[in-house]
Amino acid sequence: MERKFYTNDFEQLLRENADQFKMAPSKKVWHGIYNDIHPGRRWPSIPMSLLFVFTLVLVGHLNTQQSRHAYLTKTNKNIELKNPSYQNKSNGFAAQSSNEISGKNTNLKSEVTLADNNEFNKQLSGSRDDLIAVATNSISSTKEEIPGEKTSVIAETGSGNLFINNNNPLNSPNTIVAQFIPDESNLTTKADAIAPLHSINKHFIVTPSEQINNISSESLRNSNTVDKNPSLANDQLINKTPAVAHIKIHKNPKVNWTYYVSPAISFRSYSKQGNSEDQAFLGYITSSFANTSFNRSVTHHPSIGLEAGTAMKYSLTKKLKFTSGFQVNYSAYTIEANNIHPIIATLILHNERTGVLYPSSSISYFGNGPGNVPESLHNYSLHLSLPVGLEYKLAGDNDVQLFFAGSIQPSLVVTNQAYILSTDKRNYITESSLNRRWNIGTNIGTFVSFNSNKFKWEIGPEVSYQLLSTYLNKYYVREHFINYGIRFGVSNIIK
Amino acid sequence: MTEEVLLHGCLNNIASAQEALYSRFSPRMLGVCYRFARNREDAEDMLQEGFIKVFSQIHQFRNQGALEGWIRRIVVHTCINVLKKNKKFADSVDLIHANSIHLNENNIHSILQAKQVVESIRLLPMGYRTVLNLYAIEGFSHKEIAAILDIEESTSRSQYTRAKAMLEDILIKKKIINKPREHMGLTGIK
């Protein structure tokens, strides 16, 4: 470029005045530049995405729970409303039978009432609970044997003709599902209705009630429409089986959600990497103060930390569970410092690629250690993490268990405040560019899990450790957070 | 913080050093952009684009001149590139006879002389303004301007002559200069 000499006063005037003219750019200009040259530090995007996904999962989970609860509530109301009318209508003959289901730990009694208008009232009663079913058309039913130690009862109506009251599980959280589909065919005898029921289900024992027209369960079981005439039974099954009542047992759900919070005491540990500190001092620092041990040069106090989140637990085996979820970690500690007149403090950093040392200076307002004007500086870090881990059942029975748990937690640093000690250890400065944006934590602990009414509670000690340093490797000090906490967790017992 | 430390920090992509460099030079560079741009928003866009180039190309700085001059050159080129994307600008700078402007005295703000001069420059048509900025203030030759703006060298000269005459009239009306152009001087300075 050819620089021109100003040949007259006009250009001189313009040049001088134009050079003096300054304008203050708005902050958004720097933000735009920063986001462009540091694309990995666009902090709002990733956390917001994670938060969005988490919110979706949470809303979906809560919705599922509410839908189930609403369904059961509606079913109960239907039973209450239908029963009186049914009682009035059932003026013909009725078949009532008591069914008894023998499981490993449970006894289940069932009563089936058949009205002349083909309405059924089926009641299953256990040691702790009742199950009432009302069907307006003919029904055949099947029931599978309860395979687990624990069973509970849940009802589903195929076309709205069966109403089941399920107040409590049958000593257990396993599931019986009853599904009744109305039969359009005309079943004229009780045997027509009953026969498929116990011909299909060998475990569903029908016991007749004395009150109901001398119909005994034995006669029903030995009814010629079923046992003595298999072909007829088959025909009935084929032609009249639209009236089907399924009672199925579901095992415990393998997946459940736990919500937990862990108040903790937050500590930090310091270490230095390699001999970069010495190299730094060799080249740049002559302060004798800098030669003291790093840990002895600072006065830090632990602070309150917190972990909170939700975890999905998937049973891999009876004793082993896979866990994953979403968690917020807060770690902090306090620095004992003092207010000073602002001075330039220097950090010696090293280029990770070339290993070349270079100084980075910032204005410091705080001196290290207590002084004339003491000041408590708060270093903290807020992470969003996605823990992935395992839980192993060490001991326990159905109600109380002892678990050992461990997890790895990849995390994103949402925000933090880090007062960094200058290389000469005299001052604290803030240097956000040295903070690591991603980190990995680990967590181990034990907890006791126990059931209480509708909830399963967890409580136990745990330790969390931040595997990577808070700072990038260019800073010679490694800082790791350690949290000692007590975990409180709760999950809903799905019945 | 010295310029050398800033430069070293920027070379290592340290945000605080970059921010310090930006804070030091951005006000003056925004003034440069403002002389080229239609309004402040456009000027800030130019500034942003210019500094992104500065930070991405800072390793090319050879310490053979002032850092500010190097940054300024990048910013000016960025401004020209932004202007050239606008077709109207290409038309305006290529016109031999630009439309004369009517100076509205109400638009004249006399807060500071530097600001008045800059605002007076901004009253010029875009083509005039650009050539005048490049030649009189940024020190480009007409040959360089012709190459930068893709116009004839003679066009650049004539644009500058007309721009200069027009600006002189404006400055006289604003009483920034108090003499005819043959004997020009600053008010209160001469």
Written overview of the protein:
The complex is a heterodimer of chains A (495) and B (190). With 495 residues, chain A is of the alpha+beta class. In chain A, the strands form three sheets. In chain A, strands 10, 11, 12, 13, 14, 15, 16, 17, 18, 19, 20 and 21 form a twelve-stranded antiparallel beta sheet that branches. A five-stranded antiparallel beta sheet of chain A has the order 4-3-2-1-8, sandwiched between helices. The longest helix of chain A is centred in the first third of the chain and has 45 residues, at 45-89. Chain A contains eight helices and 21 strands. Helix content of chain A is 22%, strand content 45%. With 190 residues, chain B is mainly alpha-helical. Chain B is 66% helix and 0% strand. In chain B, α2 crosses α6 (113-122), α3 (40-56) packs across α4 and α5 packs across α7. Chain B starts with a helix and ends in a 17-residue tail after the last helix. Chains A and B meet through α1, α2 and β13 of A and α1, α2, α3, α6 and α7 of B.
